[in-house]
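Justification of resources, computational component.

The compute hours requested in this renewal are based largely on the per-chain cost of generating structure records like the one below. Each record pairs the submitted sequence with a full structure-token output. That output is archived, and it is also reused by downstream analysis tasks.
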Amino acid sequence: MNLEDIRNLVIKKEKSVTTDEEQKKINLIKEFLKDDKCFFNIPIETAIAILYFLGIKEENIKEVYFNLISYENFSKNNIVRNAVDI
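The structure output for this chain reads:
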């Protein structure tokens, strides 16, 4: 699962919102997800709470989280520079 999948889950979750509190959470998450590096910039507890809120099964949350912050995603977001680039 990648960041685009998470964004799609937000859209899906938004369609089933039933309270103002849920809509506020959705709005905050949507704003947060505008930054491709968002999961690198928050505590793991916050990330897990977001994933849980979006309906990721508890047994899969850590796997999804670690995929979102994997080296591939880290370097894809230009956070890591190759030694050649320096």
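The radius of gyration is 14 Å. The helical segments are 3-14, 20-32, 44-53, 61-68, 71-76.
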